[in-house]
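Friendly challenge for the regulars: who can give me the structure tokens for this chain first? No prize, just bragging rights.
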Amino acid sequence: MSDGAEKQVLRDEIARLRAQLVALDPKLERRPHLEPVGSSPSHALLLLSDTALPLGSFAFSSGLESYLAHNPSPRPPPIQPFLTLALQTLTTTTLPFLLAAYRKPSQLQELDDTLDASVLCHVAKRASVAQGRALLTVWERAFRGAVDPGLESARTLEDVSMAMKKLPSSTAQGGVMSTADMPVVGHFAPLWAVVACALSIPIRDSAYVFLLNHAKAVLSAAVRASVVGPYQAQAVLGSPWLRAEVARCLEKNWNVPIEDAGQGVPALDLWMGRHEMLYSRIFNS
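First reply, four minutes later:
Bragging rights claimed.
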């Protein structure tokens, strides 16, 4: 067979194989499009929901320890009624500020000041500020490098961070300086919102995880106070009841302006305020 004939046979074979590929192409299973892992806000959301996030939430019981001391019982009471009150308090007092800060990050300092003026219980105020400043430290040391510095939320956090660094070192670490004299107080909820915004976490997800983290902190305190066991606490966290309760709190307070924010459970302020009067205690609130 001549060279020309061999080349023609190869061309015909290539043409035949191409025709088969064209015929089979529609039958090939299309691979679904996957977003790059780094571009998904789910990664940042998982980081913020991690109980290992160094915010110091484990040091606070959100009034649970005082509630137990003022309601003595031979048997530990069920945790669900108190958890319901704790979630209601959080949503009525701080959720409006969280949502407002997410929608307008540039107003963070103004919202922070307003929230500080509206929180009457000094124990609750101290817990909020301690966790807020811890979150700001986490932002500076862990999250800031992964975010576009040109974002409005990132610029706002940078301004707050610079203002915080101008405070005396003892004050920035929880000193005795009056919050009225501070340029930035650093409450937890508005700072959480702006950090979530900078990390591109959707507003509803950020609010849901904020409430869920609060529920986890209360249940963690309940375990250490011997109200529930660790497995029972996880059962409550995974229950349809808790998911429905968090969703109900969000829906009820989603459109509440900051002017209408206030304590929905006054008794909880009394329990938290009397926490420092306990003879012995294991939590800071």
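Residues 3-24 form the longest helix (22 residues). The chain has a mean pLDDT of 83. Your move, everyone else.
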